[in-house]
From TrEMBL:
Species this chain originates from: Leptosomus discolor
Membrane topology: Single-pass type IV membrane protein
InterPro entries: Actinin_actin-bd_CS (IPR001589), CH_dom (IPR001715), CH_dom_sf (IPR036872), CLMN_CH_second (IPR047826), LINC-complex_assoc (IPR052403)
Alphabetized UniProt keyword annotations: Actin-binding, Membrane, Phosphoprotein, Repeat, Transmembrane, Transmembrane helix
Protein name (record): Calmin
Superkingdom per UniProt: Eukaryota
GO cellular component: cytoplasm; meiotic nuclear membrane microtubule tethering complex; nuclear outer membrane
Protein localization: Membrane
Entry keyword annotation includes DNA-binding: no
Gene Ontology molecular-function annotations: actin filament binding
Alphabetized CDD domains for the sequence: CH_CLMN_rpt2 (cd21245)
Record field: compositional bias (Polar residues): 121-133
Gene Ontology BP terms: nuclear migration
Positions of region (Disordered): 104-133
Length: 310
């Protein structure tokens, strides 16, 4: 978005003279930084450019710990990624969720392994990066606000989102968010008949082509045992930009359960070893259905049964 545009081919190399970093911060903050940039092959000038960018971040209350200009100039991958994540968190996620009334507690996102402390103890997060943060409390509050927003937008379509990791593997959560923005773009019943890969591909394509949400993820990024929370948070936060009415929504009671308007389920045979997760639905004496149901979620008050007449 710079004028003239700048292209990043290799983040770890291109960031080393400070130009990309200063340009990024200028675009995100709306303040002028590039006039202080000095192009030179000499290390002292490159360090000076980076130091100015880091000083700007500190003045903006982005607290950076255990990092200095030399680490960025040397292309230290762990520190560069940690720095970029904090910029994303502060200038996009924290800013976008700022309109939400975040009186909720800053406690854990979920009880799963990718939840409560995932922002500070993610297994793939370098230890040095964990020491760099806007503050752990601010980070949790911003991510929790985003999670609550997602839950309220997807729950009416029968999609339960517990975290920013495994809850997204099926692709249904992404599709539900899109449907909440424009109900004509997604058919949830059709989505249930598709594979996870198809749903993820549909979601990312529709979001980019119909809503203008940049495609930051690919199905392969999500179809893993432990999808990267930070990547999903970054991507999902973009959808907030398409909800200008959010400021008027009430977020003062994040733990209040909203009713599920409808839930679509598959009818299928279930192995005996999974009987502990069976929900029995009986329309009448003649019709008895069994469907898979996660016990960790409350049973929906209304369920649509769709199968072949035979």
């Amino acid at each position: 978005q710079c004028k003239p545009p700048l292209k990043v081919k290799d983040l770890f190399i291109d960031i080393q003279d400070g130009k990309i970093l200063m340009a990024l911060l200028e675009v995100l903050s709306g303040q002028k930084l590039m006039h202080e940039y000095k192009s030179s092959t000499h290390r002292i000038f490159r360090l000076n450019n980076i130091a100015k960018a880091l000083k700007f971040l500190e003045d903006s209350n982005v607290k950076l710990v255990s990092i200095d200009a030399a680490e960025i100039a040397d292309g230290n991958s762990s520190l560069v990624l940690g720095l970029i994540w904090n910029i994303i968190l502060f200038f996009q996620i924290k800013e976008l969720t700022g309109n939400l009334n975040r009186n909720s507690s800053s406690s854990s996102l979920s009880s799963g392994p990718s939840g409560p402390e995932s922002d500070t103890s993610h297994p793939n997060t370098p230890s040095v990066e964990r020491n760099m943060s806007v503050t752990v409390k601010d980070q949790r509050k911003a991510i929790r606000a985003l999670l609550i927003w997602v839950q309220r937008k997807t729950r009416k379509y029968g999609v339960a989102v517990q975290d920013f990791a495994s809850s997204w593997r099926s692709g249904l959560a992404f599709l539900a968010i899109i449907k909440a923005i424009d109900c004509t773009l997604v058919d949830m019943k059709q989505a249930l008949e598709k594979s996870s890969r198809e749903n993820l591909e549909d979601a990312f394509s529709i979001a980019q082509n119909k809503l203008g949400v940049p495609r930051l993820l690919e199905p392969e990024d999500i179809m893993v045992e432990s999808p990267d929370e930070q990547s999903i948070v970054t991507y999902v936060a973009q959808f907030l930009e398409h909800f200008p009415e959010l400021e008027g929504e009430d977020f003062t009671d994040p733990d209040k359960e909203l009713p599920i308007e409808s839930t679509y389920v598959h009818i299928k045979d279930t192995p005996s070893e999974k009987e502990g997760k069976i929900l029995i639905l009986s329309e009448s004496e003649e019709n008895l259905y069994t469907v898979n149901h996660e016990r960790s979620h409350p049973a929906p008050p209304k369920v649509h049964i769709h199968d072949n007449p035979e």
